[in-house]
Each structure stands twice: as structure tokens, then as C-alpha cells.
């Protein structure tokens, strides 16, 4: 299904015709067909949305927290009613296999709405310290910029806490996957979000993106995407001292301990890196295995990768869909070739499309062995179903290799929990996952180092959208 109003923007409570006449074709990456056009805004469109958000702020931010929670509960109700629609549009815009779109992509939007509501209900919004009243308040007008790889996860992780904190906002989803954002804007309208509190303008980075991150009436930018865009955004935001929260790239290590069941831990690691066709910022892309178990690890990884069913996203048995675009396809091909050229051992997969898939941006699930930290495939974020397996000598070497990266979003350890705990403390990453746990929507999510700053999810996300005021002499 294609949402209505793809060539309009949602500003001040209504769907409006853009000032800009520029449009972009939206491609289904599984078929390479253009399914519709999306309007790409210009500075005038961005300004109109920002001024609507500015005008709505004073009235919205003095509403009670209870009132704002009630609104997000209404949004959740409607989200649940339209759950299948969200799964279907994400399958269309990014090629997510339909079972994955339901069980992970649409599900993520739902569980983050639930987690934000629960956190808001439990949070201490105001309290006394001595004679000072400490008060949490919304930062102001927020620019929310999201990528294409987990569309509803990222939209909800920004919109829900911003609303609850008492902020108003302009959302700019990725121009590569704009369907779910438009569907969500209609939901916001139907849920009764007051005029101007939530606005949606589609556009690209150089256009709307640059305008909303530099405009003096915007108080905060919350951005998820590449480190390259994140640095440009921080620079654009600096002259007006905007708060900037950034969730950026990653190159997450996965240490398989010597005491682990190697075959099981490796197979689970392969499935984790391949899920979402490798297009997750926290994917465990660098698997570190004991050197004397390297051959065993490669055999287990090959078996697991070769068992993955790649194909039509609408087939309920498909596990791996295409990459999101031709651009990403070419980038992943180039990086697989770099792995081969730099002397890594190609265990399975490789360049080219999988057999019988001649249309769509499908790539072969690929595993490299014998990788070391100097190789491009160990350093660069690939954002495709490609695993690099690296041998280590002892646990100090494993920790050193794990931390030897500019990124610090996530890390993984597989093996007995008591053996993993001391290693977890030594890893420089915002999240350390022990034995591939279920997604914890109440744990902080965000990066060390060049993976960003700020934390999303539950109360962590709400705090990102709050200023803290001290009213001294209160009583
Ligand atoms: P991208 O950085 O190219 O684009 C992300 C968003 O930023 C899009 O909406 C885009 O239009 C906008 N944008 C681009 N340049 C901009 C600029 N100069 N000013 C303002 N806005 C700009 O990233 P992408 O290709 O859409 O997504 C993939 C990247 O996102 C990967 O690097 C991945 O690791 C990262 N990512 C990180 C997280 C996280 O939580 N840390 C989550 C998902 C994706």
C-alpha cells in the first residue's frame, strides 16, 4: 500500500501543498520499481513547519505530563490498529521481508511507544533539593532527522519522548524510505495531536536537513544516521548552540569467548549480523574468535550463512531481503571486493547477486575469515550482510581489537555469563550484549566515541528532550 499525501507536507495540523516543486521517485528495492513520488521540500517549506512548531510551543509545553501521556496512549492505540499497514509500507520502502517487517520493524515502533509511556509514568518530573525546586521541561522546537534502516523504530524513539517532554517538532524522515513517515503523520492527525505540535516535511540532507539544523528558531536537533552527516549537522547547529543528540554509525565487535560453545555462538552471531540485511547500526560485524578455534568458527559460520533464505520480501519464508538502494548495493559490492583484494579469506558469498535473483538490490550473505584490524572490511561500516571473522590470541588481545575502532555503539560477548562480565566492563561501547539477549527497550541506547552522544529509549530518551531548571528559594 502507498499512503495518501506523499506529495504534501503535514504542517500546522493539515496536509499542505509544498512550495518546492521538486519530487523524487520512491523505489521498491526488491523490484526496482518506482512505487510513487515524494515531494522534496525547500527552505520555505522547512521555515513554514518550523514557525508552526514555534507558534505551538508555549501552549503545548504547559500542558500536564498526564495529558501528554494520554495523547501518546492514543497514538499507541491507533498504531496497533494500523500495525499491518506499517509493516507493509516498510516492506515496500526498504525491502524488509514481511515476517521481519511485522516481528521487528513494526514491532519496534510499538514497544518503544509502550516503553516511553511507562517511563514517563514512573519518572520524577519535579522534586525538591534543599530549598530548590528541580523541574524538567521540554527543550523547545526540535528537528528530528531519521534514516531509512529502521524507519518506525527511529521515528518513534524521537517523536514519543519529544511529545512527552513537552516539545514541538519538525520530523524529516529519510528521503529513501518516506512512506512510513507519511503514514505516521496521518496517525498523529487522527490521534488529535494539537496543531503545530508535530509537523512533517520530506526532503534531503542538503535541502530541508540543512535548513532545520541551522534555523535559529530550532532549539534541538535529534539525528540518527551516518557519522558523516552527524558531523555536518553538529557544525550547522553550533552557531546557535542547539542541543544535538546523535545516534551514528557502528562497527560492533562480537567476542566469542574460549569457554563458549563455539558452533552455537558463531551461528547465532551470523544470524544477528545478517538480520535486516545487515543494515543495523549496532550489527555485530566483527566476530573475534580464539585463534586455535578459527577453522571451527569458519565452518560454523559458512553453514549458518548458507542456510539463510534470500528472496522475495513478500514470501513469508524469506529471511533476507535486498539492500535499500542501488547506492548501498554498489557500496557493499565495493567493500566485498576490498576484502578479497586485501587478502581476507572468502568463506562464503562474495560479489554479485545470489543465483536466480537478477532484479532488486540483493546481495549474497558473505563471510570472511582471517581478517585483521588493518583491513577495510574491519574498519568501515559496510551496512550489508557481511561478516568479518578475526582471530585473537588471548582475552587482552580480544579486548584490544574490540576497542580498536573509532566507533563505540555496541559490543557483543558470547560465552558463560560469569566469564563475560569482566570483559563487558572493559569494552568501550554504549551497549554490551551478553549472549544475544532480547531487545531491551528500557536500556540506554547510544554511542561512545564517534558513534554519537545522547541516549535513546524510555527515560533516557525523555531526558534527551528536557532542560532541567532549578527554581532556587522555592521553599
Ligand atoms: P545518512 O546520514 O545519509 O542520512 C540520515 C538522515 O540524515 C536522512 O534523513 C538524510 O536525509 C539526513 N541528512 C543527510 N545529510 C544531512 C545533512 N547534512 N544535514 C541534515 N540532514 C542530513 O544515513 P543513512 O544512509 O540514511 O543511514 C545509514 C547510517 O545511519 C549508517 O551509518 C548507520 O550506522 C546509521 N544509523 C545509526 C543508528 C544509531 O542509532 N546509531 C541507527 C540507524 C542508522
TrEMBL record:
Domain of life where this protein originates: Bacteria
Entry-linked Pfam families: Aldedh
Coiled coil stretches, renumbered: none
Residue intervals of the Aldehyde dehydrogenase domain: 15-469
Entry keywords, A to Z: Oxidoreductase
Annotated PANTHER family: ALDEHYDE DEHYDROGENASE, ALDEHYDE DEHYDROGENASE-RELATED
Family note: Belongs to the aldehyde dehydrogenase family.
Protein name: Aldehyde dehydrogenase family protein
Amino acid at each position: 500500500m502507498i499512503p495518501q499525501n506523499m506529495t504534501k507536507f503535514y504542517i500546522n495540523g493539515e496536509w499542505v501543498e509544498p512550495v518546492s516543486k521538486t519530487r523524487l521517485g520512491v523505489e521498491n528495492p526488491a523490484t526496482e520499481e518506482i512505487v510513487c513520488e515524494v515531494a522534496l521540500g525547500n527552505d520555505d517549506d522547512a521555515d513554514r513547519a518550523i514557525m508552526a512548531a514555534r507558534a505551538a510551543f508555549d501552549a503545548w509545553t504547559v500542558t500536564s505530563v498526564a495529558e501528554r501521556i494520554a495523547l501518546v496512549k492514543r497514538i499507541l492505540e491507533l498504531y496497533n490498529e494500523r500495525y499491518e499497514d506499517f509493516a507493509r509500507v516498510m516492506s515496500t520502502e526498504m525491502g524488509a521481508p514481511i515476517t521481519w517487517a511485522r516481528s521487528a520493524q513494526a514491532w519496534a515502533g510499538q514497544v518503544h511507544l509502550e516503553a516511553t509511556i511507562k517511563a514517563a509514568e514512573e519518572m520524577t518530573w519535579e522534586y525538591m533539593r534543599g530549598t530548590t525546586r528541580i523541574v524538567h521541561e521540554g527543550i523547545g522546537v526540535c528537528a528530528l532527522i531519521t534514516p531509512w534502516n529502521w524507519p518506525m523504530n527511529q521515528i518513534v524513539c524521537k517523536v514519543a519522548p519529544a511529545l512527552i517532554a513537552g516539545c514541538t517538532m519538525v520530523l524529516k524522515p529519510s528521503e529513501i524510505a518516506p512512506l512510513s513517515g507519511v503514514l505516521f503523520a496521518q496517525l498523529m492527525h487522527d490521534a488529535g495531536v494539537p496543531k503545530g505540535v508535530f509537523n512533517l516535511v520530506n526532503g534531503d540532507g542538503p535541502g530541508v536537513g540543512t535548513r532545520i539544523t541551522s534555523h535559529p528558531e530550532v532549539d534541538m536537533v535529534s539525528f540518527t544516521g551516518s557519522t558523516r552527516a552527524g558531523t555536518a549537522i553538529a557544525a550547522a547547529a553550533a552557531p546557535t548552540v542547539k542541543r544535538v543528540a546523535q545516534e551514528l554509525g557502528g562497527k560492533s565487535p562480537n567476542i566469542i569467548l574460549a569457554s563458549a560453545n563455539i558452533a552455537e555462538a558463531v551461528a547465532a552471531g551470523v544470524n544477528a549480523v545478517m538480520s535486516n540485511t545487515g543494515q543495523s547500526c549496532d550489527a555485530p560485524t566483527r566476530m573475534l574468535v580464539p585463534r586455535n578455534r578459527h577453522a571451527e568458527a569458519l565452518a560454523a559460520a559458512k553453514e549458518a550463512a548458507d542456510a539463510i533464505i534470500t528472496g522475495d520480501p513478500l514470501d513469508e519464508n524469506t529471511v533476507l531481503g535486498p539492500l535499500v538502494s542501488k547506492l548501498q548495493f554498489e557500496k557493499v559490492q565495493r567493500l566485498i571486493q576490498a576484502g578479497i583484494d586485501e587478502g581476507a579469506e572468502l568463506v562464503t558469498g562474495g560479489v554479485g547477486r545470489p543465483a536466480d535473483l537478477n532484479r532488486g538490490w540483493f546481495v549474497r550473505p558473505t563471510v570472511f575469515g582471517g581478517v585483521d584490524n588493518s583491513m577495510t572490511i574491519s574498519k568501515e561500516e559496510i551496512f550489508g550482510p557481511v561478516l568479518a571473522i578475526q582471530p585473537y590470541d588471548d582475552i587482552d588481545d580480544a579486548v584490544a581489537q574490540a576497542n580498536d575502532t573509532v566507533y563505540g555503539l555496541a559490543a557483543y560477548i558470547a560465552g558463560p555469563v560469569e566469564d563475560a562480565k569482566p570483559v563487558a566492563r572493559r569494552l568501550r561501547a554504549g551497549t554490551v550484549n551478553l549472549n544475544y539477549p532480547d531487545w531491551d527497550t528500557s536500556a540506554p541506547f547510544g554511542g561512545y566515541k564517534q558513534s554519537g552522544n545522547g541516549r535513546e529509549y524510555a527515560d533516557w530518551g525523555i531526558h534527551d528532550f528536557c532542560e532541567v531548571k532549578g527554581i532556587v528559594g522555592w521553599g
